[in-house]
Design a protein that fits this description.
The protein is mostly beta strands. The protein contains one helix and 23 strands. It has a 16-stranded mixed β-sheet that branches. Strands 1-3-8-5 form a four-stranded antiparallel β-sheet, with no helix packed on it. Strands 2-12-9 form a three-stranded mixed β-sheet, with no helix packed on it. The longest helix has 19 residues, at about 5-25. It comes from Rhizobium laguerreae.
């Protein structure tokens, strides 16, 4: 007997097949915006849509192509961050400075992104010295515990990448001009900006033998999920102390982080045990080293504003401090 489908069933099946085809086409790691103008600074936003064989993603590694330079990854709450540095094939101009080395790979590690969710991983960088029409490939290694998924296939010039099982994310370079400082150039708490000069000293407060001064934060831009804070603690006493936690009404959570560069690898990690303040010692939270990370910020930090924080020390107790908000570049 011949089965006759109703018109509604036919349209429903067609819609289901269309959605399924679309989901399959977008099942790999891609960029949110797949085009970038020549000589522009962009926020390259990678989308990771699923885990590996239903397992949670625990690490994402991204290799940066030649022509994507001065790269600065965006930290993510709950993930450790590593930046691998190396030599460029060419020399690039960075506001008058000749630069031959920089980030060549970025790794977000020890996270836990369930297969039920997707997330984005952002790298700020400049597209430089690349001809219009060129596609820059960013090979990605997605790790889910012992399971590894490599998104690294690149079609030959003029070839079709649609039939590939594991294509590398691509950025197509289109014609454009450099109009000076892009908005992305000022985007928040990036790794390189945190290597700038320390801020002018702010108000000084005391807690027991501790003296806290020079507090400042960095301005944030729309879309930036985290903020950075810094200050100096001087222990004038003869007893060791420890900064154990920080809170602020401006954020849902404030974490204490450390950034260390060793063997050309920059690593950032949360210090869950806080920071030791030895007797007679001065400890600086400053760009490129120890710092506060503001998570779930309620209102973006704007230059000229202030951010109140409460520092809790093991022995000196609690003390309130106000951070002055400077520019994103710490000037």
């Amino acid at each position: 007997m011949k089965t006759i489908k109703t018109l509604g069933e036919t349209f429903g099946l067609a819609a289901l097949l269309s959605v399924t085809a679309f989901a399959g086409a977008e099942a790999h790691v891609t960029f949110l915006d797949r085009e970038a103008k020549q000589e522009s600074t962009i926020l390259a936003t990678l989308q990771v849509p699923h885990g590996c064989d239903s397992k949670a993603t625990t690490e994402v590694r991204v290799k940066l192509p030649e022509g994507f330079v001065f790269a600065k990854p965006q930290p993510k709450a709950g993930w450790e961050l590593e930046v691998i540095k190396g030599d460029y094939q060419k020399t690039y101009d960075n506001h008058g400075d000749k630069v031959k080395t920089g980030a060549i790979e970025v790794r977000w590690k020890n996270g836990n992104l369930s297969d039920d969710f997707y997330d984005t991983f952002v790298i700020q960088g400049k597209v430089s010295g690349v001809e219009a029409g060129t596609s820059l490939a960013f090979p990605v290694t997605q790790m889910c515990g012992d399971t590894v998924e490599a998104w690294d296939q690149v079609a030959k010039e003029g070839g079709d990448a649609h039939g590939m099982k594991s294509p590398a994310p691509l950025l197509k370079v289109v014609a454009g001009e450099d109009h000076g400082h892009d908005h992305a150039d000022m985007a928040g708490m990036d790794m390189s900006a945190m290597a700038g000069a320390a801020a002018p000293a702010g108000d000084t407060v005391k807690a027991g033998d501790l003296e806290i001064s020079g507090g400042f934060a960095k301005a944030m831009l729309p879309g930036q999920p985290v903020g950075g804070g810094f200050f100096t603690v001087k222990n004038n006493g003869q007893t060791d102390d420890r900064l154990v936690s920080v809170s602020s009404p401006a954020a849902g959570e404030v974490q204490i982080h450390e950034m260390v560069t060793k063997d050309n690898v920059m690593r950032m990690r949360q210090l869950k045990d806080g920071i030791a303040i030895g007797a007679g010692e001065t400890v600086k939270l400053q760009p490129g080293n120890l710092h506060l990370m503001f998570q779930k910020v309620k209102t973006l930090f704007k230059q000229g504003d202030t951010v109140p924080v409460t520092l809790t020390f093991e022995k000196a107790g609690k003390v309130d401090l106000v951070l002055r908000v400077l520019s994103a570049q710490g000037k």
